Amino acid sequence: MASITIDSVAKSFGSFKALKDVSLTIADGEFVSLLGPSGCGKTTLLRIVAGLETETGGRIVIGDRTVNGLAPKDRGLAMVFQNYAVFPHMTVYENVAFGLRMQKADDARVKRQVEKAAGLLHIEAYLDRYPNKLSGGQRQRVAVARALAVEPQVLLMDEPLSNLDALLRLQMRTELKSVLQEAGTTTLYVTHDQTEAMGLSDRIAVMHDGRIEQVGEPVDIYSRPATRFVGGFMGNPPMNFIELPVEAGRVNIGAESHSLSGPVGSKIVLGLRGEDVERVSPEVGMAFKTAVSEPMGSHLLLTGTIADQPARVILPPTEKVRAGETIGLKLDADRLTWISPETGKALAA
Amino acid sequence: MSAARLSSFPSARRLLLWSGIVAVSLWVLVPIYLVALGAFGGREGVYQWPKSFLPLEVSPDSVMVFLQIQGVGTAFLNSLIAAGITVVLSILLGAPAGYALARYDFPGKNAYRLLVLLTRAFPLAILALPLTVSFIRLGLYDSMLGVGLIHTVLALPFAALVTQGVFMGVPRELEEAAWVFGCSRIGAFLKVVVPLALPGLAATAVFAFVISWNEVFAASVLTVQNRTLTAYLLTVLSESPLHYQFAGGLLLILPSAIFIFAVRRYLFAIWGVSSK
């Protein structure tokens, strides 16, 4: 086990800056996800940690060793690839044993470790098969077992579930969490799927445009986004952004008036999660003009406008709202995010 | 009606497939069979007209006599040596070039590919005289190493370009996985890339072998005493009786056929390099 320190790492491909001064510390045994849209640099960062890509600047420390310039094999890590990268010319057993064989482990240890990893991932039945006889889900299990068999200090995963179909992904996600909790391995996990990141991680680092926008526990990232980008990227439906006028440091929401901390201009952007509302009469609450009403079974999804700006809110499934109807919304004052329209950054709560 | 058409469709396809297979097989096999017939049918069979498709008498006489012609054995061995040198050199030099072309982007990559092919643009006939002169100076003239080197030049462009395709068929992620799990670059190449590229490398080797085995011009120009089989037969057999010529032809065909037969599993498996 070991911690990972990423210290001001930068990476350029020609004139394109893929990573701009990224710093992140992952504690021993912690599970951290790098989450972001495609092209945000998350996979590049993971590959730099793995040693598959060379950083343009900065430092990578694994445990107490600076690993810059070391070959991947000398970094004491294991990796699970997006396309599994299971060796087609070796049996499942030899695939899982590959890392141990490279360490010149004796046969007894190889056997013990392979059986342990195979047991964790439930692939004992296929150990003597070749990968081309396995389904995608089974191959991914083999890839994870291969990584766990070496008992790495650090486990890196690059979108390991993205090639699986939806149902299998859900199942593998749950299993992965229980397996990794048991192993207690320091894990850096790359994904573009926010539910995966939310469900698996101790902490999430949201990346955008070569930078880390925010690092924090999943619930904090969700309810206290540091920037407009994070709020818009996390959640389904994404956070609503409504620009409101400010008068003498106060802003009116329906009949209520909120005071804002810190210096603000004449306008402020309200970040509102769709589920942080309650239906009240239109005279009291903030007016929401319904355009489309979709009963989803577990909730009622309303699409419409607040203060002439598009918004989506979620009400309990028992509510009934017709298209065209204007309803009143009472906002949960503790869960609102106030974002500066100039910088896109959230004001301190 | 549509059901009837549907049910007859697969059988029509199968008929087409099999007639295609038969036609292609005959295209290759009938000439070889006729050469074999000429070689084993003896003197009578060769000059008989109309030809019989069944051998009248089978005797290894002409082949045996042919093999006993002075120099055939040595020439056969020479051909094997030259082809062996060609195979080894074109794989050893061509495969790394193919690997570099497949894995790295470097300035002038396309120009390099074109240049590789351009080595084939010079007709050997033009190069023959200067080559002979320099080979004599270098002491390579009339040696199998010299012939092997020239054949390597002929085979190398194909070796580089074919192995490029072969290595591109081996997913980069597999190699990266090997690096992460403890392999050096060379270790990963030997443990993961080579086993997966083996069918393609075998095909390249066969290709190089056949190029060398069949080449006659350079071999004739660059040797006097130590001739390869093709060069030797060209000089000896043009004056020989027809059934000896057939025997010689069969001996030229057989090694190529046997070699290709031996690696057929790899040739069939070329498309089976799995990317998953």
Could you walk me through the main structural features you see in this protein, from its secondary elements to its overall organization?
The complex is a heterodimer of chains A (349) and B (276). In chain A, the strands form five sheets. A six-stranded mixed beta sheet of chain A has the order 6-7-8-3-9-10, with helices on both faces. Helices cover 25% and strands 34% of the residues of chain A. With 349 residues, chain A is α+β, with helices and mostly antiparallel strands. Chain A has helices spanning 42-50, 92-102, 107-121, 136-149, 166-183, 194-200, 218-223, 228-233, and strands at residues 4-13, 16-26, 31-35, 57-62, 65-66, 77-80, 154-158, 186-191, 203-208, 211-216, 240-245, 250-253, 256-259, 267-272, 277-280, 286-295, 300-306, 309-315, 326-331, 337-339. By secondary structure, chain B is mainly α. In chain B, 78% of the residues lie in helices and 0% in strands. In chain B, helix 7 packs across helix 9. Chain B is globular, with a radius of gyration of 24 Å. Chains A and B meet through strand 6, helix 2 and helix 4 of A and helix 8 and helix 9 of B.
Q: What distinguishing features does this structure have?
A:
heterodimer, A: 349 residues, alpha+beta, Rossmann fold, OB fold (Dihydrolipoamide Acetyltransferase, E2P), 2 domains, 6-stranded mixed beta sheet, 5-stranded antiparallel beta sheet, 8 helices, 20 strands, elongated, B: 276 residues, mainly alpha, MetI-like fold, globular, disordered C terminus
